[in-house]
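Subject: Sugar ABC transporter permease structure
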Amino acid sequence: MFLPVMIWYVIFTYWPMFGVVIAFEKFNAVKGIWGSEWVGLRNFRQIFSDPYLIRILKNTFLLNIYGLLFGFPMPILLALCFNEVRNMVFKKITQTLSYLPYFISTVIVCGFALTFLSPSTGVVNIILNKFGIESIYFLQEPGYFRSIYVFLGIWQGMGFSAIIYIAALSGISPELYEAAKIDGANRWKQLCYITFPSLIPTITIMLILNMGSMLSADVSKIILLYNPTTYETADVLNTYVYRQGLLGTNYSYATAIGLFQGIVAFILVFGANLFSKKVSETSLW
């Protein structure tokens, strides 16, 4: 049973990693990986001299910081709310409804956003017009892009991300709650002194793993939402790699950016794990 999985990973995950060598070449599709000219670190030097580097790094970090500040706590709060619901029928229905957006295609989610935020027929602008406020071109204004992107990410992923916290909550011994009731602890005190502290190890692990995606973004969502007028805040490393590699056929430079992205992600995860190990007993390794 394990052999097919291992073969799949070798073919589709580990074998393609050898392609990272083109980051050190001036890749020519005709000559192939092994026949292309070797240029050493030239592509990496180009990254640090790229006039767009500061902008795309800033946008990438800000999108992820906003997502971490507003999106990371939401699954935890949702899981805590589900844990307090005693009506099992209502609990199962609401849990199912919260999971559904995760399985909706990103194209459809972005279609919802375009429809709701349309300056002429969008529900949001219709409501604003009712109060005498002029229509806002949300998707043409750079200042609104980050909020829209983060909100869509929270709405789509909050319920599914809560599953791991719900699983952690199910592992808490009922005897702890029974002992707390005997001691006169109400629901709020049980939440503060039993439920939430029991989630701390899981929260720590998830936070460490999230550090690895601080230089990543949902490229398909951004491509579907952004346009040249919002490049100022919407252009990130992933979209820049997309334009350089797939649209500009500059495969070596795009690969170098991707490798740089991976190295920074590893450093962030390693640093977060080291910090967690020093201040607590929870870590990835």
